[in-house]
Design brief:
alpha+beta, Alpha-Beta Plaits, four-stranded antiparallel sheet, 116 residues, globular, 2 helices
Length: 116
Amino acid sequence: MNENYYKIMLSYEIPYNVLDSQDPDVIRARDTLYAKLRDNIPPKYDRFSVKLVLHQVKDTYNYLVTYDAFFRCRGDKPMGEYVEARDLKDSIKKEIEEFFNSVDCDYRQLNIKALL
């Protein structure tokens, strides 16, 4: 049986801290987003970490919202698992962007590169 590891990382720049908003509509949308992100990775995967992190950028005072997931799949079809992981990333991206749109928050997706 093969073990394949996957890492999903999505990052967005937003103009204000929408994740800590106390507006009741934003709170409902945020709770829905958290529930969807928590349940998005199927139980067949071994989850090592799943997190949504917020950082403030000092030079612009904008915020970075970063979703990061690391998980393992044990199976005999590595290409099929890769396609499933890619579809999972697209689904998570859609959920995050729908959240930003639903609370009328401008956003810009950023590409994060690993330093090795």
